[in-house]
Structures are given as C-alpha cells and as structure tokens.
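re: the backbone from monday

yeah here it is again, tokenized this time
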C-alpha cells in the first residue's frame, strides 16, 4: 500500500509554532485589555458633577478668593459623626523600620491607608504640596475631582517648572484648580484638608523616594482647633498665590 503525505498533516514544528503564536496573542490581548481598562481611562470618560459647597466648607469666591466660615457648635459636633475620632486621628510612618525590605510592606500599607483617607472625602480637598510624583496619590486626587469634589492645590514655582508631566501640572491639565507661589522662597508645606473636617500633615513629599525610602510621617487629626488653623492658613496661602497662566 502506498501512503500519501497530506499537505496539512500536523508536525511537532507546526504544533510548537501554533502554541507560541497563541501565547503571544493572549499576552498581547491581555496587555491591550489592561491598557484600555485602567482606572485613568475610566476617569477620563467621566465628567465632573456639579459641585455644591456644604455650609461648613470654605467657599471659593467669584474672583478666586477663599472665604473660611466660622463653624457653629452644632456643625463642630457633626464633624465627629462624619469623621469618627478613633479612625481619623492617626499617625502614618514611612517606611517600615522593622522590615528588612524598605520598599514594601509598611510603606505600601501606609500609602494605601493615606489613599483611603482621600477616598473618604465627600465635598472638598485642599492641598499644599511641594513635590508630588507618586502615582497612587496623584490618581486618587484626580478620581475625587472626577467624582465632582472641589479640589484646590497650592504648590511651589520651582517644582512646578521642573516637572513637566507629573503632579500638580498633571492635575492642572485635567481641570483642577492649581495656584503656585513665586516669591523667591519655597512653598514647602505638605498638608491636606479633607472636607474642612480633617487635616493630614507631616514631612512626607508625595514621591516614590518619600514613600519607599525616606523616614517620613503623616499626622491625621480632626481636632477642631487644629483644623480651623489649617483652614485659615490654606485660605491665606491660596489668596496670596498666583493662578496658573493659561499658556502653562
């Protein structure tokens, strides 16, 4: 009997080539899927909702000035209901000095906790940041802006001009209100006010080195007297700094 070789008879070479092709295609589709469905993509599709300023929050006046209202006793009591003291009075340390790996564990846990505080914001976030390039913190601020919160940022002229795409400049391009100080002296504050009810302050710059390598700290407080002083200081800085020119 004469055997005839079929033109498409599979061989080990064909099977191997087909397998490799499927693996490469699957990997490519996986990267394409992850690229398209990243949080940033979702955020860019969302339009900011109309922001309604709560009665207790600092109000942005027509000329861009901030007005800080005085809180009544009832409003002060309400702060403890919205921001429970046992959760909102904390100290975060970066990184974990007990860990042999300074780039993970406690550092990552602290960043996640910091992100959660911002994610709990309901109305307004006021930021004084000298330098920020940390992806997680940059993204959570953009996320809250896209949810309709009022976001106000004061930064420093030197860091603004030195970084073309990260941090405050990235926020500004997304539509967030940013002002910068340009007086010859640094705007070196690193604090955030959430809902005019809680303050996050400390030595931490929002950078990879600040989070993963340096010994840094962030204090979280809802003490009304402390919050009021920070609100007043932010209003003073905001009103004494310059709006970003349109050509930036």
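seq for it, each position gets an aa:
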């Amino acid at each position: 009997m004469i055997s005839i070789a079929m033109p498409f008879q599979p061989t080990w070479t064909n099977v191997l080539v087909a397998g490799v092709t499927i693996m490469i295609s699957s990997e490519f589709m996986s990267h394409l899927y992850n690229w398209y469905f990243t949080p940033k993509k979702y955020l860019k599709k969302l339009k900011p909702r109309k922001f309604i300023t709560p009665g207790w929050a600092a109000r942005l006046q027509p000329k861009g000035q901030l007005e800080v209202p005085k809180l009544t006793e009832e409003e002060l009591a309400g702060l403890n209901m919205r921001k429970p003291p046992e959760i909102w009075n904390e100290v975060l340390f970066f990184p974990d000095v007990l860990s042999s790996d300074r780039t993970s564990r406690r550092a990552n846990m602290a960043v996640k906790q910091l992100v959660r505080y911002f994610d709990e914001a309901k109305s307004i976030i006021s930021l004084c940041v000298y330098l920020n390039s940390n992806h997680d913190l940059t993204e959570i601020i953009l996320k809250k802006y896209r949810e309709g919160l009022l976001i106000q940022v004061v930064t420093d002229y030197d860091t603004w001009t030195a970084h073309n795409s990260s941090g405050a400049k990235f926020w500004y391009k997304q539509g967030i209100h940013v002002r910068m100080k340009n007086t010859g002296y640094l705007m070196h504050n690193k604090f955030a006010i959430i809902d005019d009810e809680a303050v996050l302050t400390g030595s931490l710059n929002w950078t990879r080195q600040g989070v993963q390598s340096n010994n840094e700290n962030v204090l979280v407080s809802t003490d009304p007297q402390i919050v009021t002083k920070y609100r007043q200081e932010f209003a003073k800085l905001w009103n004494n700094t310059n709006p970003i020119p349109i050509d930036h």
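Strands lie at 59-60, 66-67, 90-94, 124-128, 150-156, 177-181, 191-194, 198-202, 216-221, 242-243. The chain has ten helices and ten strands.
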